[in-house]
Amino acid sequence: MKMHAHGGTGWQDGLAIDLSASVNAYPLPDRIRTAAREAAAEMWKYPDPAYTKLRDAVARAEGVPMARVVCGNGASELFTAIVRAFRPQRVALTEPCYSGYEYALGGYGTEALAVRRYPLREETGFTLGEDFLRFLEREEPELLFLADPNNPNGSLIPAALKENVIRYCQEHGILLVLDECYLELTARGVEALRGRQRDRSRAVAGPEAFDVAAEPGVLRVKAFTKTFAVPGARVGYLLAGTEELAERVMRELPEWNLSVFAEAVGVACARELLETSFAADALSYNADERERLAAALAELGFKVYPSDANFLLVRAPWPGLAGRLAAVAGILVRDCANFHGLGTDYFRFAVGSRQENEALLSALRTFARQAEGGAR
């Protein structure tokens, strides 16, 4: 069986269910499917190199000036462009965290790069602690990658601490890259989106109608990948704290880095966020299924860590879980052994459809009965 560092490859082995990539299980809106189909008629064109329609749609949905929006071929391309644009020598990460940050850091060829890791503690559910500011003071990084919510555990940064980290980074000249790719799948993200929806009058007037205060040194990275389950479309975007930051990142991107398909899908996604209740409806579904799944897993002897997103980090009571699930039940889950700070008994389960979640629990109940029988 082929294993990719990020999961999402169950289709390569013909597995029936893939819960290894934490994409939204809530049904994709018809508007987005239609936009992808209609984009086929535009294949004869080169894309707009400035992606004006997409940046305008994102700016309206996010409530920021369009000049501070940068679009990328997924969030991954933007992480790499950020590193290339600023070429830091001292970088801070949490542990565990998304491995794509290190992939981006390894791509620009400096031997002097120093990576410092702040260990998230199991006893607190791998949530960022109040001592994080002391860690930044001690390590003095030039760049900080920080996810909210964090991957692989799905916990949000406490709101007051997040604001304190932003303020500290601005005061001490630390470039802060906030990975908010899962934010719209959390209650915090949906509440912020509702606020922007209530202010749609300014969005209709145009993104430049938003008088949003600059956030010097802050880059917020998002993607429609997770929110709408469109990883194949590769649509990420960055909300830069200032126009100058946006311009620096843009200069590191190739021409035409998005296809006409990606732009069309992205525009439809942005409009869906701003104009409908999709995010709130998806949150309701995912929260209900996550809690039901968490309770069932705990009954089976799993250690389940608190999550605010559409996935769960668990510690399994039996070895070799990922391989057994794939071989016996045709289900792929994320083995977390390659996350710094985690071992071979940690796994991430995406919240799937009700049918997929039931299939996972059925397989795990069978394993539990087998383990109980073998122990007698």
Please provide a brief summary of the model:
The protein is 43% helix and 15% strand. It has 376 residues and is of the alpha/beta class. Strand 9 (303-304) and strand 10 form a beta hairpin.
Topology summary:
Elements: E1 17-18, H1 30-38, H2 52-62, E2 69-72, H3 74-86, E3 90-95, H4 100-105, E4 114-119, H5 132-139, E5 143-147, H6 159-171, E6 175-179, H7 187-198, H8 200-205, E7 218-223, H9 224-228, E8 236-240, H10 243-250, H11 260-275, H12 278-299, E9 303-304, E10 311-315, H13 321-329, E11 331-332, E12 334-335, E13 346-350, H14 354-375
Parallel strand pairs: 1-11, 3-4, 3-5, 5-6, 6-7
Antiparallel strand pairs: 2-8, 7-8, 9-10, 10-13, 12-13
Shape: globular
Beta-strand percentage range: 5-15%
Low-confidence stretches: none
Write out the strand line-up for the largest beta sheet, numbering strands in chain order: 2-8-7-6-5-3-4
The amount of helix comes to: 40-55%
Give the tally of β-strands: 13
Please tag this protein with its features.
376 residues; 4-stranded antiparallel β-sheet; globular; alpha/beta; 7-stranded mixed β-sheet
Describe what you observe in this structure:
It is built from 14 helices and 13 strands. The chain is globular. The protein is 43% helix and 15% strand. A hairpin with a 6-residue loop joins strand 9 (303-304) and strand 10 (311-315). It is of the alpha/beta class and 376 residues long. The mean pLDDT is 91. It has a seven-stranded mixed beta sheet. A four-stranded antiparallel beta sheet has the order 9-10-13-12, covered by helices on one side. The protein has a two-stranded parallel sheet with strand order 1-11. Helix 2 packs parallel to helix 11 (260-275).
